[in-house]
Design brief:
alpha+beta, five-stranded mixed beta sheet, globular
């Protein structure tokens, strides 16, 4: 069975995260980098406003420190 995951904020398809196993990612400019953990259905963001928007939609979300969680990637997190 194939399941497509959509971003709850912008509606785009979540892509396979090439840097972290069991994660899907959306990096739309409207909300920045957003990760979804397929193991328990939690979202991870560095932006408090994005987290609040996700919580309003009934999603479980964690606000994380970008340097600790997102690591050294090509995304400008500063």
């Amino acid at each position: 069975m194939w399941v497509e995951f959509k971003c709850p904020l912008c509606g785009k398809d979540l892509d396979d995260d090439k840097t972290m196993a069991n994660f899907l990612v959306c990096s739309d400019a409207s909300h920045g980098l957003l990760r979804f953990f397929t193991g328990d259905g939690c979202y991870f963001t560095t932006d408090q406003k994005v987290a609040e928007d996700l919580m309003k939609k009934g999603k479980r979300v964690h606000v994380v420190d970008p340097k600790e969680f997102f690591g050294n990637q090509t995304v400008n997190l500063e």
